[in-house]
């Protein structure tokens, strides 16, 4: 008791207290922050392998230690979700400089992507890869997703996610073949021209609603062939090519049986 | 001609008794025999391009039939409802929307055959305008609008404008986001008109856009007023075709004073009737297999929203393109009043110019040719080089506007920069028509020269002969008189030579100024021309052309052919 009372005045006491406070706050944050998903997806990932892959394939542009160069941004703090999105859609490693990084057949397996994600996660905290439950369309509300999608996404990605043009050769890609996890990660991290929608802008539930709406577009189209879901321009092309083309063909046939 | 055979067909043996009795019944009461006799003798020339207008007519009939079905389930109201939680489509369950949108969804998903009817209706609408435009192009390029048919051109032109209005009011009815965007543009266009714009917008929408009245108003226009007007004009259009007789393509025995063709009854009636079912069949097939205007993709209208790839139906796409093409810096604020030239020019002035050209062209051309004769034989497009070139130049402007209207899709599908496309199109809108005009005119004149060449020297056979003294020549096969008729029978206009503006004493004469303009336009139209071969030229060409004759060709045939041409060239 007296020993404790004596040491209250010790010159290291404030520093110890500060360390203790930091430990408590940090510990509480680690316990409460929504980073449980990271543990899920990256449980079996090997950050060491990821680092080796990074040095061999990414460091040329992103720099040693992923701190960025003149060519490419720093990846410290981008989080596993960004790595998983970019690598599994084939956008990274980038094939060529251009208006934007194109999706292409992925160069790494899912496991290798997770290894790299684990490595990037060691550099600094960032958005983590969503769990199966977070992206399950069956748990989302498609009507609410429709209302959210058209307010936040449709102006670039088209009303049902068929894609659309941006300036200077950039474009918003079609979402028709993207997996729910990829869509979720894109919303969370905002790759390239896309704005990020953090959990305050669109809550995880709302993101799942949007995924539910997009998955609704994959089923049978009630009207028949979708014609690319591009709207009146493709309809106009088809009415001339198929409709008027067939009718003019018939007219020629009828007209040829005369003189 | 062929009509004389019909009297033989009405003998007792050929017609079953019940038919004969029915015809007799009607004949004694409404004089059916008179009508049949008349129709059996009424001749129509036959050509596939004369069926283009029929596609429009039949599409219109399909529009009316499917439209009647749709009116039974559509509710033209902007009252707010919530779509039922247990109704399809899933993405709309419980969503707040207007009654118009809800009833459109209901008729698409819960009325048996409703979606099929909606899609047939929409495809038929696109086909209606499309076939009208193609029909109009045929009439334009063959000169079928010349006297006495200028008025019928105007009737058809008015129907085209009305059909655009029918389309605009029709596709806005479901009250979805896409058509609402279109209405918002309409509102903006109306507002861009100086001084009266805002008042007119309030008049159209019954207050601030979008209000609650525009859907019921457009419904009335779409199902009552506009189709009524189109129907009346359609009757007039067909009556005038019947009354003035149909034009015919140039050919042996066809002149401005006769009609060569098949009788309306039974041949043409059977062909036309059959074609109706073909058109209906194709439209039904399209409606059944190809989705169109899936409004549940866009969702109920909300003025704050717009999605990528928002375009109007194809016949309004040129207006969209015109707006996209115009640089936005042309908006001025004068003393607190906004002058939106960035909207006024592309959405009011440009279509105004295009439609004025279309509507007025027959009268302009007539003022230039000062031709008072009647024309029932069509022009081959090459023989009216300047008109054909003007038409293609007009089309090139239209195509540039269409491509601009779809510039975002061009960018994504061809991997191009949206900005670069728009810049290129801004140049092309001025350059392309000039280039197309010059190229088309040269092509037409070259084709005419080729015609001359073929008439004078015959077709190339690919057979090269060597004479006894070692000379080589290619054997040409002379044209028969049927082929020749088409190539030499046309009329060639020459530039007007009107008296000068001032007489010998330097005094201006009345009308001199207008004549000056007319002379200049006439020179523009007809200065470059190729005269058809005259009989004298043909005789001269053939007199030194005996060596071209194939040995197998009967001697003396050239004399008969010459006789054939003599009466045809003007």
Summarize the helices and strands and which ones pair or pack.
The complex is a heterodimer of chains A (259) and B (570).
Chain A: H1 2-7, H2 13-32, H3 36-42, H4 47-57, H5 59-62, H6 79-88, H7 110-123, H8 142-152, H9 154-157, E1 164-165, E2 171-172, H10 180-189, H11 204-216, H12 232-256
Antiparallel strand pairs in A: 1-2
Helix pairs in contact in A: 4-7, 6-7, 6-10, 8-11, 10-11
Chain B: H1 6-9, H2 17-30, H3 32-41, E1 43-44, H4 52-71, E2 80-82, E3 96-98, H5 99-109, H6 114-141, H7 150-171, H8 177-192, H9 197-205, H10 214-244, E4 262-263, H11 264-289, H12 295-298, H13 317-325, E5 331-334, E6 337-340, H14 341-369, H15 385-405, H16 407-414, H17 418-457, E7 459-466, E8 472-477, H18 481-488, H19 512-526, H20 535-543, H21 557-566
Antiparallel strand pairs in B: 1-4, 2-3, 5-6, 7-8
Give an overview in words:
The complex is a heterodimer of chains A (259) and B (570). With 259 residues, chain A is mainly alpha-helical. Among the domains of chain A are: 37-123, Cytochrome Bc1 Complex, Chain D, domain 2, CATH 1.10.760.10; 133-221, Cytochrome Bc1 Complex, Chain D, domain 2, CATH 1.10.760.10. Chain A is built from twelve helices and two strands; from the N terminus they run αααααααααββααα. Chain A has helices at 2-7, 13-32, 36-42, 47-57, 59-62, 79-88, 110-123, 142-152, 154-157, 180-189, 204-216, 232-256, and strands at residues 164-165, 171-172. By secondary structure, chain B is mainly alpha-helical. Chain B has three domains: 1-42, no CATH class; 46-249 and 265-320, Cytochrome Bc1 Complex, Chain C, CATH 1.20.810.10; 441-566, no CATH class. Chain B is 60% helix and 6% strand. Chain B has 21 helices and eight strands. In chain B, the strands form four sheets. Chain B has a two-stranded antiparallel sheet with strand order 1-4. A two-stranded antiparallel sheet of chain B has the order 2-3. In chain B, a hairpin with a 5-residue loop joins strand 7 and strand 8 (472-477). Residues 1-12 and 547-570 of chain B have low confidence and may be disordered.
